[in-house]
Design a protein that fits this description.
two-stranded parallel ribbon; single chain; globular; 3 helices
């Protein structure tokens, strides 16, 4: 087992490094679980979410749940996301 701690700053530097070397949108199937009542998205139109996803993913299917990121990762939502991916 390995455990480590990475600061948010270090994570963001790694993410910026990877993004700078990538081509977007990514051409692979993506199945996305979106917490529409998360603090970042709360009160914003779904078109804002779609615009961000479209920037990075060309072949996406989205499962939206009215919850925050703290409560969206549930067994039922995971089952529904897997069902979406399996068609």
């Amino acid at each position: 087992m390995q455990w480590s701690y990475n600061s948010l700053g270090a994570f963001n530097e790694c993410l910026a490094h990877a993004i700078a070397r990538s081509r977007f949108p990514i051409e692979l199937p993506a199945f996305v679980l979106v917490a529409t009542d998360d603090g970042y998205w709360q009160g914003r139109p779904e078109s804002d979410i779609d615009a961000l996803l479209d920037r990075y993913l060309s072949r996406r299917q989205v499962l939206r749940r009215r919850a925050s990121h703290l409560w969206v990762l549930t067994p039922d939502n995971m089952r529904d996301l897997l069902a979406l991916a399996l068609g």
